[in-house]
Amino acid sequence: MLKFPRTIRLDPSDTFVFERAAEPGEWAVSGAFVFWNRDPTTLGQKQRVALRSGFLGIDSLGWSTLAIVTEATEAEREAMIERLAGQLMEKFGAPDAEAARLAAEEEIAFAGSLCEHPPQTLLAVQRSVENGEIRERFRTLKPRPVAADADRLHAHASAFTFHEVEGDLEPAEEVDLLGLIRTDARTTDRT
After folding, report:
1. pTM to 2 decimals?
2. Is residue 20 scored above 50 in pLDDT?
3. For residues 124 and 139, is the Cβ–Cβ distance under 8 A?
4. How far are the Cα atoms of 69, 95, 100 from residue 82, in angstroms, in the given order?
5. pLDDT exceeds 60 at position 89
6. 72: domain range?
7. Which Pfam families does the entry mention (predicted)?
8. How high is the pLDDT of residue 147?
9. Helix, strand, coil % in the chain, rounded to nearest 5
10. What number of H helices and E strands is found in the chain?
11. Which alpha helices (DSSP H) does 9-125 contain, by range?
């Protein structure tokens, strides 16, 4: 079984922080290509937020703060490629269908490479522009084991308090998810 990211919305914040929020459950890609050849200083506030921390839903071209690792079939992968290639032609000016398909295949393959984790693992991205190039750092968040004597209702009441990070050992840093998730980074550079 293949695995790819889907957008997920744990709270309504995406609808406030992005110009367009992705619908929950859309197949997602990194979306960094949206910002290639753009001067970050000319971006509006909500565009800068998308540049810093958004996954791109391939249907709506909306943004999501988090994505979730989800199993997919080969037919779904092909549909993702076709949909993204169409978006690249229609919205981003790809020179022809072949170039759009090749770019879509590359984006979908990269998205799949982020999903080498168990299904239901949450993914977060942090981007920065360094020397004119976009650097992406991806984090994985997985459910924290709950003590056997914990109240079941309490264990499911607050999604933000029951996650921990899996990844390379780098200095801990706070991710702005209501200030409640502590993360270590697994870094993937793509320029």
Report:
1. 0.77
2. yes
3. yes
4. 20, 16, 9
5. yes
6. 1-191
7. DUF6505
8. 56
9. 35, 30, 35
10. 5, 11
11. 14-17, 45-53, 74-92, 97-113
